């Protein structure tokens, strides 16, 4: 149990019109996101109440956190649309089996310090000064109100003294059960203190190696070619921007990605979704996905539930072993059923942990 209570760290309400393609960049004080001089915080999760007008989701494209003045969009880029909600309100989220868990950025630090590898479980974002957000409207104006709540834990220096350990353990090994590899991560042991807070996993001032939560969504920005795999890659102009890129070129970059979940919003012409690792398909028989039978649905509960019910499904998490991308290429792919999927037809979301070991291989 955490020494501090889970609470709202910042709460941003946008009213009025946000023009297409523009950013909303509130000051931290607008959402009470400023911390006292002797306080630090860890961000457990975000809740988004998306804009809906007359029952129709408005195009709030993306939302990301700015922590102590530094953007985290390259790591966690959240969907602001109601139908594609990656971070819905927790009490409206259905969790009906072992593979559908609400999306936390990581376990709180106190509980993590009792884990075998605390640095791998305590991937919550760390804030030492202020928390705010940036949102981007999509291709049309956003006219309805929307809200972004940031939840987590606050600690002062006295609380840090009562932690079960005063240091975050360092070097550890990750077992890749798919390949049989043991991957060594040379992470530095770090004293847990107010001054070092931003150097811990999820901290914005980490040196390399760095450990962070990862969450991205992407929608196909081109129509598919019938019966041909479609890769959610920015370099092929198959997704809108680099922060929606679902390709991992880790045969060149010295990084490690632990994939923990994959979700999809389907289309009538969709047949398969899968994760490709250097030509190896995961799962081996792909996910068979249709518009009305989708085992990896996320976001608004439709079409499984009536559209007027405020029910959401989290990104499904892998049930057996985590998928690890290391010294190889990985990419999310889909394929249609023989009829092309039009632009903006399918949205996928990927959840995991990124470990940046620094430099090139």
Describe it for me?
This protein is mainly β and 361 residues long. The chain folds into 2 domains: 7-159; 213-360. The chain has helices spanning 109-112, 118-121, 157-160, and strands at 7-14, 23-24, 39-49, 52-53, 56-57, 60-67, 70-71, 78-79, 125-127, 131-137, 146-156, 167-168, 172-176, 181-185, 190-191, 210-219, 230-231, 247-249, 253-265, 270-277, 280-288, 299-300, 312-313, 323-326, 329-336, 347-360. The strands form 8 sheets. Strands 2, 6, 7, 8 and 10 form a 5-stranded antiparallel beta sheet that branches. Strands 17, 18, 20, 21 and 25 form a 5-stranded antiparallel beta sheet that branches. A 4-stranded antiparallel beta sheet has the order 1-11-3-9. A hairpin with a 2-residue loop joins β4 (52-53) and β5 (56-57). The model has no long low-confidence stretch (mean pLDDT 94).
Number of domains: 2
Percentage of residues assigned to helices: under 10%
Q: What is the quaternary state of this protein?
A: single chain
What is the helix tally? Answer: 3
Number of strands: 26
Low-confidence stretches: none
Largest sheet: 5 strands, antiparallel
- From the spread of the alpha carbons, the general shape counts as globular
Please state roughly what percent of the residues sit in beta strands, choosing from under 5%, 5-15%, 15-25%, 25-35%, 35-45% or over 45%.
35-45%
What letter string, H or E per element, gives the SSE order? EEEEEEEEHHEEEHEEEEEEEEEEEEEEE
Rounded to an integer in angstroms, the radius of gyration calculated over CA atoms is: 20 Å
Mean pLDDT: 94
Q: Which structural category fits the helices and strands?
A: mainly beta
Distance between the termini: 40 Å
